[in-house]
Amino acid sequence: MNIYQEAAKQIVDSHYCVAFTGAGISVESGIPPFRGRNGLWNKYDPKTFEIEYFLQDTARAWEIIRDIFYDLFGHVLPNTAHYALAEMEQRGLLKSVITQNIDNLHKDAGNTDVYEFHGSLKQIICMNCGQKVNVAQVDMNHLPPTCFTCGGLMKPDVVFFGEAIPQYAASKSIDASQKADCMILIGTTGTVAPANTLPSRAKAGGTTIIEINPDPSEYTDRITDIFIQDNATRAMEHLMEAIDELI
Ligand code: APR
């Protein structure tokens, strides 16, 4: 049995399989990772994404966010790996996706049970009254945007360094990690807490960990049971072929 057949058998035999994804799954959609070769943190100072900086220099922070996340990456599309996870959900093989990504590509691909641990760029939120609007309503030539309801300052509905994880995403992600008997890690270094505790929490509960990554991560030697060392799109193509052979 090859590694894809092994992984496929674990997934098909599982009762509650979840995916845990990081920036690597979106690299082949054109979004660079944060770390490693051509990582965003090699070009931009992560300080820019701290909530203190955002509040101190709001106009500058919004310009950088616009330049990176809306101008550069605002028009990217899901790739084969995103669509494979959506197909797995449709076929009843995957219960949910816990993602660290803010690019909305899992929902664009068709997954319906997606827990966005770090929020999503698709909306902006008022820091005063909590009103959320679709980012398409923002005039990116007049930043920072203010709330239509109360005039308060609005920010992308994503978790800045120093901010709390959204309660809904946190509780659903923890619940899914505890229920999972199979977890597929795709494209994450596993370096950022508290998101990075979810796979370890699952492993502690006896979950089989399948990992897809061209490079080893914090998980590979510690909790990974099946390590598929490849890019997400090729790995997911082979995995779906192996699943089709089983069912
Ligand atoms: N397919 C699969 N994985 C890939 C690919 C690819 N084509 N290309 C790169 N990778 C892997 C890298 O080997 C690395 O392990 O994706 C991972 C990207 O790691 P990070 O950039 O650290 O992304 P992530 O783990 O999601 O970061 C977690 O850090 O900066 C914060 O909030 C940000 O959500 C992010 C968090």
From TrEMBL:
<dbReference type="InterPro" id="IPR026590">
    <property type="entry name" value="Ssirtuin_cat_dom"/>
</dbReference>
<dbReference type="InterPro" id="IPR050134">
    <property type="entry name" value="NAD-dep_sirtuin_deacylases"/>
</dbReference>
<keyword id="KW-0520">NAD</keyword>
<keyword id="KW-0808">Transferase</keyword>
<dbReference type="InterPro" id="IPR003000">
    <property type="entry name" value="Sirtuin"/>
</dbReference>
<dbReference type="GO" id="GO:0017136">
    <property type="term" value="F:histone deacetylase activity, NAD-dependent"/>
</dbReference>
<dbReference type="GO" id="GO:0070403">
    <property type="term" value="F:NAD+ binding"/>
</dbReference>
<dbReference type="Pfam" id="PF02146">
    <property type="entry name" value="SIR2"/>
</dbReference>
<feature type="domain" description="Deacetylase sirtuin-type">
    <location>
        <begin position="1"/>
        <end position="247"/>
    </location>
</feature>
<protein>
    <recommendedName>
        <fullName>protein acetyllysine N-acetyltransferase</fullName>
        <ecNumber>2.3.1.286</ecNumber>
    </recommendedName>
</protein>
<dbReference type="InterPro" id="IPR029035">
    <property type="entry name" value="DHS-like_NAD/FAD-binding_dom"/>
</dbReference>
<dbReference type="InterPro" id="IPR026591">
    <property type="entry name" value="Sirtuin_cat_small_dom_sf"/>
</dbReference>
